[in-house]
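QUALITY CONTROL LOG
STEP: pairwise intake check
CHECKER ROLE: data steward
CRITERIA: each record must contain a sequence immediately followed by its structure tokens, with no blank fields

ENTRY 1 OF 2
RESULT FIELD BELOW
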Amino acid sequence: MPIQTRYLYLLRYILPITDVIMINLIYVLAYYVTGYMGKVVSEEIQQHYLVVCNLLWFFNTAIFRLYTAYNARKIERIYRGTLKSLLLHFVLFSIYLLFAKDYEFSRTFLVLFYVFLLAGFVLNRFIGTYIQHLVITKFNLTRKVAVMGNNDTGLRLADYFQKQRNLEYYGLIGDEASMYGDGFGRLSAEAVQTLQDAANSGVKDLYVSVSPSRMREIGPLVKEADKQLLRLKFIPDLAGALSAPYTITYMGGEFPVITLRDEPLESMGNRFKKRLFDIVFSTIVIVFVLSWLYPIIGLLIKLQGRGPVLFKQQRSGINDEPFWCYKFRSMRMNNDSDNKQATRNDNRVTTIGKFLRKSSLDEMPQFFNVFMGEMSVVGPRPHMLRHTEEYKAIISQYMVRQFLKPGITGWAQVNGYRGETKDDTAMQKRVEHDIWYLENWSSMLDVRIIFMTIINVFHGEENAF
């Protein structure tokens, strides 16, 4: 739960209002400047197109969550969200105008509008930064907080508060022993004085890091905090039992649930976005690329020798469910495909197969796997069933990667961990990258990985053989 201040609360509402006003004023300004320059401007600009322009802005900011409390907490996030929204607005508005086929529409207007709009947003955000600085330093509207408990969690929390510009951090008060009563329902005189000093200094919220096993002993602290008009916020000190970060949520609004790993794709909304992207992306590739590439590669494979065009092999999928993974056949027919990895200068690889593997074109049929929902465009690479059984016995957390659908490309692959795994260390690194991807997934990360994959294909990859 984010810490709310009056400034942050107002910013969430002031920012969208000022942005919409600015967009409309700049739109009208660009219209009149274009006309003043002697360019013909469609009358539709003043009516229909202006409505579309505003609707597209709301659509884009919703996608990038520009006006959420999360983004409002850091000015850097506002800058990034604004730039992304503006770029997407330019693309979508331009496409709309293209399909509208309004031949009287002035391209000069479009250029002026986005140049003025970019300048307006830069000015707007700089003014916002100045106001934020003024609010924090001059008017002292930030909320003052303190931390009690010098355990591992308390120290980490203190470090976190020191980095927050929207809060005023008072300090770490009292050691861990001072928060507990003496057994007779009283706090020590020193602890009482510490709370009084904090309250007199303007502290509103006191964050107490306490071991769950000792929660029953903090009754005297609660009573004294009430007297001093201090709001207590308890944070369980689990650092000794659990490795951070962990997530605490509430089931049914009543039962606290501790999750040891953050998995963005556990969210139904995120899973829907990823699956929608997979369907759209794989459909485009199948219709516009594989429709003509498949016959060409198929003919070359057939000319190389006997055997099918496609090679299929059972591999480990999501939740360790096996599925048939498809590739263009790059090897001569052999009996070792399910047991032996491809190695450098492998004599089983055909001449056309070397090109397919070096260019990663042998993986293209896996877009059918993506379309059918067995794979994703981006995810951990699927391994042979034998390798899954072998490595899960010797590599810690190996099976964690099976929480996700396997991918055609992945975070490990674009960082160089692909191809033959000559030793357990190479596989360990691959697993570490796959788990990092699982814990840090975002739509933009998928896009980044896809671009990195395309760049690597054109540059050539050392481990592609």
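ENTRY 2 OF 2
RESULT FIELD BELOW
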Amino acid sequence: MDYSQNFFYGASPEIHRRAKELRRTLTTAETKLWELLKNKNLTSLKFRRQHPIGPYIADFYCHSLRLVIELDGGVHDTIDQIERDKGREFELRNLGLRIIRFQNDEVLSNLDQVRKVIEAFGANPDYFTPP
């Protein structure tokens, strides 16, 4: 199967169901970032929220850039979760995807800087290195 043509990368019906549930219960930070990203508000790029990708659900996904944006709350600071996040990133990168991570606090307190990072990526995705 050529996953590059399928922006769900083989996600199962169960992952699609869980993603739909998550779209109804966004965190405060996810809601704030979604207001910035939805309706092509940012650099005319189409983003999806709680998007199924294989066995995972990305917080936000832009298929044209092959960009996953992840927001991390306090749970992501635990040793177990850090290891899971590393494995997840490894698998997503193996699909040819790029990942930018932000802390929830960054989105809530400095949305303008978050916007600038995403715009910089959109302007030059091949040469962008996240902070």
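INTAKE CHECK: passed for both entries
DESCRIPTIVE NOTE, ENTRY 2: The radius of gyration is 14 Å.
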